[in-house]
Amino acid sequence: MNATSIRDLLAAQPVLRDLEPADIDLIAGCGHNEVFPAGAFLTHEDDQANHFFIVREGQVALEMHTSTGPLLIDTIGARNLVGWSWLFPPYRWVFDVAAIQTTHAVVIDAACLRDKCDADTAFGYRVMKRFAQVIVDRLQTTRVRLLDLYGAGNAC
Amino acid sequence: MVPEMPAEAPTIANVTGSRAPAGPMVPARYRVTDHRQDNADTVTISLMPIDDPIDDPQPGQFTMLYAFGVGEVPISVSGCPRHEGVLMHTIRAVGATSRALCRLEPGSVVGVRGPFGVGWDVSSAEGSDVLIVGGGIGLAPLRPVVREVLAARERFGRVALLIGARTPEDLLYAEEVERWRAVPDVHVEVTVDAASRGWNGHVGLVTALLDQLPITPSLTTSFLCGPEVMIRVVARDILEAGSPADHIRVSLERNMHCAVRQCGHCQLGPLFVCADGPVVTWAVAADLLAVRRW
Ligand SMILES: Cc1cc2nc3c(=O)[nH]c(=O)nc-3n(C[C@H](O)[C@H](O)[C@H](O)COP(=O)(O)OP(=O)(O)OC[C@H]3O[C@@H](n4cnc5c(N)ncnc54)[C@H](O)[C@@H]3O)c2cc1C
Ligand code: FES
């Protein structure tokens, strides 16, 4: 798949809204399309975070292996971003990421995008702002989940 | 001379037949005809009247269920006699009275007052898209809404049902949810806080799924029930997506005693939740739930 069609795929993703068309072009230049069959791992805990993913179709699970088997921490569906370990050293994944259903994703080369962000800091700022928004949203929903909403003491 | 005793001494449970209309403060006796364990701490009981039955409840209304000798608590109707032939309540055991109600086996007798309060008014959503969001035991008062919408599916636009639970094992009405999922043109999503490998639904907060539902927020009537925090975050997200506040209905919960606007136990700001609620629009609830009052 060429960069133009990757660009079109990315432009259609609400998670990249607010970015300018030229920004999408720059990101698309670091991307390629991939399909992960159900059960396939997109990445493993402690692997180098050389990529991140924009899920176009399907669903992936963030998992962590425990002595009693893998626990699902979060599921992420279509039109969402997966991965921010690529943003900061030591660039290592904290979770396993597995496809629960057949998943179509745009895979972005992290080193390529980091270089572009460093070279054009205004672009880099806009990318970081978009990622910060996603991270804040996830942090806030995670905090609400920490309340154990459906546990005893929250009768209804 | 010792008077001859009747074969069976009259007790609260075995006196049968109707009584004079007794008013809203006197419970009617109902017999438990079915007891179903929904999950570790939640039970659905079906009831048939021994005395004159209470009026047929509307979805969203509640009754005061009296576990004789223990106490009386408000419980929403989870199945209406006109749909199911019996009066159904789904009860989570959290304290003395709800635990006593959850222990009632078929044949036991319970007191029922009601129905009380303002219901969901499902028919007013006809012609619009419908979003139903139930979290935990909050799915119970919404079950009659789902049944009513599915029974007249053609009268509504797109229909989405979003269910939140603690774990897959805590999900209420698991088999029925699968039947709802199989209905064409009804979008059902279940998300839990924690799960192990093998769970095919979602993990995360219900809000994470809102933007994936096939509804148009500005044309949607929403019905929300669950923990108050869940109601607040979902209502705000739907509002932000363009749904008018008076198209978002939420079910409120406050401690109740009389259920007939007499004792004041259920007051929330200017509302008597037993009579002005439990279902109100977000236009009414937003400020009341946002303010920390104590
Ligand atoms: C309109 C309305 C409809 C309701 N519908 C249902 C229903 O369909 N199914 C159901 O299981 N419950 C429902 N409830 C909640 C139910 O009434 C309470 O769980 C019950 O009153 C608890 O009484 P108890 O004597 O068992 O426990 P208590 O001894 O009174 O309380 C035990 C523990 O539960 C907590 N608790 C009590 N009530 C509530 C509450 N309302 N919300 C959060 N925490 C609470 C207390 O803080 C305490 O920690 C409804 C409440 C209202 C107001
Ligand atoms: S419960 Fe008594 S006034 Fe509402």
Based on DSSP secondary structure assignment, what is the total number of beta strands of chain B? 16
Shape of chain A: globular
Terminal CA distance of chain B reads 65 Å
The CATH architecture designation of chain A is Sandwich
Based on the structure given, which CATH architecture of the largest domain in chain B is correct? 3-Layer(aba) Sandwich
| CA-based gyration radius of chain A | 16 Å
Strand content of chain B: 25-35%
Class by alpha and beta content of chain A: alpha+beta
Percent of residues in helices of chain A comes to 25-40%
- What is the CATH topology assignment of the largest domain in chain B? Rossmann fold
| Average pLDDT figure of chain A | 91
What gyration radius of chain B follows from the Cα positions, in whole Å? 20 Å
Question: What is the CATH top level name of chain A?
Answer: Mainly Beta
Major sheet description of chain A: 4 strands, antiparallel
Which stretches of chain A are poorly predicted, pLDDT < 50 over at least 5 residues?
none
Multimeric organization: heterodimer
For the sheet with most strands of chain B, the description reads: 7 strands, mixed
Strand adjacency order, main sheet of chain A:
1-8-3-6
Q: What order do the helices and strands of chain A follow?
A: HHEEEEEEEEHH
Number of contiguous helices of chain B: 7
- How many strand segments of chain A? 8
